[in-house]
Amino acid sequence: MVQQVGARLDASFAALSDATRRGVLDQLGRADASISDLAQKFNMTLTGMKKHVGVLEQAGLVSTEKVGRVRTCRLGPCRLDEETAWIERYRQLWAARFNELDTVVDELKQEEKRNGRKRR
Amino acid sequence: MNKLTLEAEGDRFVVVIRRFDAPPAAVYRAHLEPKLIQQWLLGPDGWSMPVCINEAKPGGRIRYEWSDGKGGGFSLTGEVLELEPPHRIVHVERMHLPDPTPDNHIVTTFVAEGAGTLMTMRMTLPDAETRKMMLSTGMEHGMEASYVRLERLSRQSGQ
């Protein structure tokens, strides 16, 4: 369960690593929109916008529905609630710190070994 | 894999659990000796910690300052409350942004597990609002740097 959440968050953060995609989410938070609305709004080709929406859709942040010739986009089932996003960001900070700490304690361990040998 | 768990518990707690491949004495030392702390207690990507004071004794002062090397920075101050080498550290800390945030009370324990250590850090904030502020502040500071890093990574993997 926890791992699933982690994988989902990874996908979410990768999807969120692009300014346009963050803008699209912001926009969809206000109102549903078609891909051509979004392309126009972000001054982009239809193909370019389709790609971005595809990434967001894969992360579950956006869902789309085609009615006739229009594909409407809305916020998806996996939208990140604010607190989850904060905790994940905080977790990433500590994860990076503890990776460095691994190196530090490893050096201490080696040092200890050398000292131990000297004493004997 | 020494995977990290970090969870918000109730309204006021954050619990962090991590395993290390070194005995408690080493992990304990790395939490108290400034020379060691400076190597791992990172700020945002590319920042350093030019000032690191930790008077490792009950009542001792803590002061950490992070800098982006361009005049930007923030600091943390605190006090050591209890030490039980090499198993337990109790301290309080607050961020200065630049106004001080309410105190975060932290109990860190180091338990031997085989040849390694199971470390548990239990943070207690005065209320839900303060916890929210702490989590979101970490985000503000780390956010842009992390996005830049992610953007770089996703560009690389997209090629």
What does it look like?
The complex is a heterodimer of chains A (120) and B (159). With 120 residues, chain A is mostly helical. Chain A has helices spanning 2-15, 19-30, 35-41, 46-58, 82-119; strands at residues 33-34, 62-67, 70-75. Chain B is an alpha+beta fold and 159 residues long. In chain B, 28% of the residues lie in helices and 42% in strands. The longest helix of chain B is centred in the last third of the chain and has 31 residues, at 128-158. The two termini of chain B are 29 Å apart. The chains are: A mainly alpha (120), B alpha+beta (159). Chain A binds chain B through residues 2, 13-14, 16-18, 83, 85-87, 89-98, 100-106, 108-109, 112, and chain B through 2, 4-8, 14, 16, 18, 20-23, 26-27, 29-30, 36, 39-42, 132, 134-136, 138-139, 142-143, 146-147, 150-151, 153-154.
The gist of it:
The complex is a heterodimer of chains A (120) and B (159). Chain A is built from five helices and three strands.
Secondary-structure blueprint of this entry?
The complex is a heterodimer of chains A (120) and B (159).
Chain A: H1 2-15, H2 19-30, E1 33-34, H3 35-41, H4 46-58, E2 62-67, E3 70-75, H5 82-119
Chain B: E1 5-9, E2 13-20, H1 24-30, H2 34-40, E3 48-54, E4 61-67, E5 73-84, E6 88-96, E7 104-113, E8 116-124, H3 128-158
